[in-house]
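Whiteboard transcription, Tuesday session. T.W. wrote the structure tokens on the left side:
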């Protein structure tokens, strides 16, 4: 049975060789048979010299990893249709996209893109020795959106999207098979378009991912194919990680894999970004390996954290009791995204200020302060410090707004001024995470950008906070990137389409 831990390197991770060794050692010691590296554009392939962002994994690193850990399969996860955004948001790759300025999918009717897919497979096979070559295929939500694809698939089959998907992937799968390797793909698009399964070579291994509950309902639908059950650590929608949801999902997938006699188990770990470093979840990764071997084990996930157990309970269970943005949802963590992704932390104030009213900020800070005392190491402490900074930022923005609306611009500025220092601190945490485990370089820049925007807003309040324009712009307007003096009605907001 395959027991795989898949690490998402595509979300800006910049591992050194030492960090990669750390991942491989963790996987091997925990009992995994393979370490999956989810790469997308983060593999420095010869055919795309233009896509090698700083910190991309190199062929030399992979070769070293393979010779240092000969008993561990190092499986490449490349992605050859959906999740191509790391390539097509670069100047040389922009013509690969299915639609301009939106989505994650490349265009399967673009010949240069298809040639690139072939090259990526060839180079991956040249470098990685693993039996399994995973070529992605998930979340291709834009099938048939461009006119070339729409024309090509028209009338080809009852399910035209299934035809287009198959037409793209069939030759790529053949290429992997001809090279003597085993192709693997994600299962979601086959569940959505079962007709795409009909002509799929039976050697294709299906990675059936479900991040709530298990795979009992879906795995049997891949008739004739071997299936790998894929749970995840519930991180993307969490302040740190939703422990109970993670525990249930992993246990259920392990149990289903055993009962349905599946080909394996693959723990997927995604998106350790936005001040949430990978090494803070290593104990969960190790625990998942033990559960995949023995799903009936009574060892709980919090227990697996050892000296960090209380910390894990506080951030992974207790914090969710605060409701709102702290509970599991289908979204990326909205507070983190709004503070850090859009370059305007005031969006977090606009959408989440209610969540810190009526003493809730104090309650949140008490929980987070407790976790700081419980944190046994730098990775845990940094998660807690980051969260404390995020709640403090909300509090500062709310206080600044109160003064601003009372026409006390100097007092409003005095509340915003310390936010600059706060984002410096967050940048320092991001830098530590980068140095310690190869965490996101973009996180550091996100904090710098947020700080710069706070400077801009302070200057605006200084200039216009006494209604010097003849009116006092609403706080969400004066704090927005697109604020324009004298545009009192905000035509940039009325004509939203012009922002695309
Ligand atoms: Zn297209």
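and on the right, the sequence the group agreed on:
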């Amino acid at each position: 049975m395959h027991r795989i831990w898949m690490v998402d390197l595509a979300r800006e991770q910049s591992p050194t060789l030492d960090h990669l060794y750390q991942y491989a050692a963790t996987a091997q010691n925990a009992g995994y048979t393979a370490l999956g590296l989810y790469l997308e554009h983060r593999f420095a392939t010869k055919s795309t010299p233009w896509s090698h962002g700083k910190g991309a994994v190199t062929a030399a690193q992979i070769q070293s990893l393979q010779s240092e850990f000969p008993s561990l399969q190092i499986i490449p996860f490349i992605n050859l249709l959906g999740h191509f955004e790391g390539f097509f948001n670069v100047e040389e790759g922009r013509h690969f996209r299915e639609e301009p300025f939106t989505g994650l999918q490349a265009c399967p009717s673009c010949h240069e893109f298809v040639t690139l897919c072939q090259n990526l497979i060839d180079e991956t096979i040249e470098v990685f020795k693993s039996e399994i070559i995973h070529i992605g295929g998930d979340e291709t939500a834009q099938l048939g959106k461009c006119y070339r694809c729409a024309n090509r698939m028209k009338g080809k089959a009852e399910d035209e999207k299934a035809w287009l998907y198959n037409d793209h992937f069939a030759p790529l799968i053949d290429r992997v098979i001809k090279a003597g390797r085993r192709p693997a793909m994600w299962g979601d698009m086959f569940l959505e378009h079962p007709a795409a399964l009909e002509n799929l070579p039976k050697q294709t291994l299906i990675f059936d991912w479900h991040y709530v509950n298990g795979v009992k309902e879906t795995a049997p639908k891949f008739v004739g194919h071997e299936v790998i059950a894929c749970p995840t650590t519930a991180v993307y929608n969490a302040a740190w990680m939703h422990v109970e949801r993670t525990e249930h999902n992993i246990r259920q997938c392990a149990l289903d894999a055993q009962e349905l006699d599946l080909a394996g188990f693959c723990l997927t770990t995604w998106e350790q970004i936005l001040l949430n470093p990978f090494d803070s979840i290593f104990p969960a990764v190790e625990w998942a390996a033990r559960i995949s071997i023995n799903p009936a084990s009574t060892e709980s996930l919090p227990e697996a954290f050892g000296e960090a157990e209380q910390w894990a309970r506080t951030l992974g269970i207790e914090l969710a009791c605060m409701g709102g943005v702290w509970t599991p949802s289908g979204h990326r963590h909205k507070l983190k995204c709004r503070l850090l992704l859009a370059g305007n932390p005031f969006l977090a104030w606009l959408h989440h200020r209610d969540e810190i009213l009526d003493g809730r900020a104090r309650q949140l800070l008490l929980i987070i302060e407790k976790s700081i005392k419980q944190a046994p190491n730098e990775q845990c402490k940094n998660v807690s410090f980051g969260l404390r900074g995020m709640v403090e930022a909300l509090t500062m923005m709310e206080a600044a707004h109160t003064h601003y609306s009372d026409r006390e611009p100097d007092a409003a500025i005095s509340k915003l001024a310390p936010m600059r220092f706060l984002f410096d601190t967050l940048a320092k945490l991001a830098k530590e995470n980068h140095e310690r485990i190869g965490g996101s370089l973009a996180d550091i820049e996100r904090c710098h950008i947020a700080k710069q925007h706070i400077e801009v807003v302070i200057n605006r309040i200084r200039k216009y906070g006494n209604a010097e324009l003849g009116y006092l712009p609403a706080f969400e307007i004066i704090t927005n990137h697109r604020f324009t003096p004298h545009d009192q009605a905000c035509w940039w907001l009325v004509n939203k389409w012009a922002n695309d």
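Someone added at the bottom: The radius of gyration is 24 Å.
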